[in-house]
Amino acid sequence: MSTIDTRLIDGKQHAAALTARVSAEVAQLDREQGQVPGLAVVLVGTDAASEVYVRNKTRQTSSVGMRSFAHTLPADTSEAELLALVARLNADPDVHGILVQLPLPPSIDSTLVLDAIDPAKDVDGLGQVNVGRVTLGHPALVPCTPLGCLLLLEAELGSLSGLHAVVVGRSNLVGRPMSQLLLNADCTVTTAHIHTVDTAAHARRADILVVATGRPGLVRGDWIKPGATVIDVGITRIPTGSGKTKLVGDVVFEEALGVAGRITPVPGGVGPMTIACLLSNTLHAARRQWAGRNTGRAA
Ligand SMILES: NC(=O)C1=CN([C@@H]2O[C@H](COP(=O)(O)OP(=O)(O)OC[C@H]3O[C@@H](n4cnc5c(N)ncnc54)[C@H](OP(=O)(O)O)[C@@H]3O)[C@@H](O)[C@H]2O)C=CC1
Ligand SMILES: Nc1nc(=O)c2c([nH]1)NC[C@@H]1CN(c3ccc(C(=O)N[C@@H](CCC(=O)O)C(=O)O)cc3)C=[N+]21
Q: Residue limits of the Tetrahydrofolate dehydrogenase/cyclohydrolase NAD(P)-binding domain (predicted)?
């Protein structure tokens, strides 16, 4: 049986290119207008993985020349206190982007908090205004992880028009917006979830297979149509024995090799693009806010 020479999609390299573009534009804006974009990242509680991501985000924000404001609140922070912080950040002219790290403690209604973020500063694209705009196919601030996946797909494949895309997962953070973006890119989209009957059969018809379930090993080699492009969003830390851990995706990577045309590795695939898209969204949001203020229009 002939096997395919599977190409790895280097997310780190794509992310570095996008970050370099953002960095150059930030330097130019500072030089020519003396204006610097600012990103506020809010973390409630002490989830170890979230702390690592927030550290990465703040470090990279500073490294492209933007201002970074980290707000770490105790796990027992009340909903009212968090809403008060969001209101302060909405009113702060130095803050152009606000990201509230998920998940929030169960005592806090995350929908309420996400909807309280000024839509012009909602660089995670998770509030109802930006979600609605994406759903209508209008310009919007687009959630960073699905945006990163879309940029990888377009960089690798060019036009996605007419391709059959299967998205496994329908979370508000990843799967749902991913399906919307692929639909806007003129794909034929199937969204699979926990109630889907025979997800494997759907997956086997996909030209583009995006997997975002957090279930390591869910997608086997025989779920993949030969030559398909596979985007593995899943990130799970598993023990390797001897007290060490490693990160794995939702796809059995070794089985995908020789079947998929292209695939994103974990780590080094979608993850780095998520952060690059956050920086790009923050620059975009800042430009809109400056333009709005200058012309007196709402951003
Ligand atoms: N690389 C990155 O930048 C990012 C990576 N992630 C990672 O992506 C993964 C998904 O994250 P997230 O979307 O937030 O997770 P959620 O747990 O919120 O959502 C998982 C989704 O997968 C579906 N699902 C679960 N099991 C199956 C199954 N056996 N068959 C079909 N569908 C299934 C669920 O269906 P249902 O809705 O029916 O329950 C749900 O829609 C995680 O590993 C997370 O760590 C997340 C964000 C960013
Ligand atoms: N409001 C909100 N927005 C998010 O975008 C959001 C969130 N909450 N909560 C948690 C998830 C997770 N997430 C990741 C970002 C970067 C990497 C990343 O950079 N990963 C590296 C590896 C990092 C490592 O080594 O630990 C990689 O895949 O190569 C991973 C995961 C964003 N999330």
A: 143-289
Is there a binding annotation on residue 235? yes
* DSSP secondary structure of the chain: -----PEE--HHHHHHHHHHHHHHHHHHHHHHH----EEEEEEES--HHHHHHHHHHHHHHHHTT-EEEEEEE-TT--HHHHHHHHHHHHH-TT--EEEE-SPPPTTS-HHHHHHHS-GGG-TT--SHHHHHHHHHT---PPPHHHHHHHHHHHHHHS--TT-EEEEE---TTTHHHHHHHHHHTT-EEEEE-TT-TTHHHHHTT-SEEEE-SS-TT-B-GGGS-TT-EEEE---EEEEEETTEEEEE-SB-HHHHTTT-SEE--SSSSHHHHHHHHHHHHHHHHHHHHHHHHHHT---
pTM: 0.97
Q: Is 180 a catalytic residue?
A: no
Q: Which residue ranges make up each domain of the chain?
A: 33-118, 143-271
Look at ligand 1, atom 1, and give the residue with the nearest C-alpha: 271
Span 102-136, pLDDT tens digits: 999 999 999 999 999 999 999 999 999 999 999 99
User: What are the tens digits of pLDDT across the range 178-217?
Assistant: 999 999 999 999 999 999 999 999 999 999 999 999 999 9
Question: What's the CATH code, domain 143-271?
Answer: 3.40.50.720
Residue 241 labeled ligand binder = no
Q: Which ipTM did the prediction report?
A: 0.98
Q: Does domain 33-118 match CATH 3.40.30.10?
A: no
Whether ligand 2 lies within 6 angstroms of the CB of 141 is answered as no
Catalytic residue list contains 246: no
Measured by CA distance, the residue closest to atom 40 of ligand 1 is 169
